[in-house]
Write a structure and sequence with these properties.
This protein has 187 residues and is of the alpha/beta class. It has 7 helices and 8 strands. It binds zinc ion.
Length: 187
């Protein structure tokens, strides 16, 4: 996908090492909840745009293995933490946030699916901040046993989606440790 070399993966190992070494970009939601992103959106835009194609599943898996999985292996916490993928509906055969979440499976993290979904089907894609503010996603959390939570999404733009997700999880009495996203699209 990136170079012309023959590879049995969609992105060869050399390109993965050179282009997909994750960084750690940080911002905060609600004044205190950290959001960590592994890539800048513009640096991997062509790969992220495969999301709605047949290749998307493989590309997202490779991206997640290079970032989410590596993060999870180094993550330590006193309790077992649960990770929730935002709005992990199955579109075009797979859910891109569930792919990311799956790679967090580790001794300290238990990925859970279909626990945090928007009741509103309104899409924020391509919409401005004003539209997003006026059209809340109405997240609803289903119960699970862990108290401490990591929230997972693929791209953070304005941060409104994750803010609403965090508020719902907090309203249900859970402790949100931080959010993890693949890419930060802030300019
Ligand atoms: Zn390559």
């Amino acid at each position: 996908m990136v170079c012309e070399d023959l590879s049995f993966k969609h992105i060869c190992k050399t390109c993965q090492n050179e282009l997909l070494s994750p960084s750690f970009y940080k911002r905060k939601l609600l004044g205190k909840i950290p959001v960590y992103s592994f890539y800048k959106y513009q640096d991997i835009e062509s790969l992220l745009l495969t999301k709605h194609t047949d290749l998307g599943y493989y590309i997202y898996t490779i991206l997640a293995q290079n970032s989410f999985s590596a993060f999870a292996q180094g993550f330590k916490y006193e309790n077992k933490v649960c990770s929730l993928s935002v709005d992990d509906h199955t579109k075009s055969g797979y859910s891109h946030t569930a792919i990311l979440n799956k790679q967090l499976e580790s001794s300290c993290i238990k990925p859970r699916y279909a626990k945090l979904r928007a009741l509103s089907s309104t899409s924020y894609s391509g919409k401005d901040y004003q539209f997003r503010l006026l059209n809340p996603r109405n997240f609803q959390m289903k119960t699970f046993e862990e108290e401490d939570v990591i929230i997972v999404d693929d791209i953070i733009t304005t941060g409104l989606t994750l803010t609403q997700a965090v508020q719902e999880v907090q309203n249900q009495g859970k402790n949100v440790l931080f959010c993890l996203t693949l890419a930060d699209a802030r300019k």
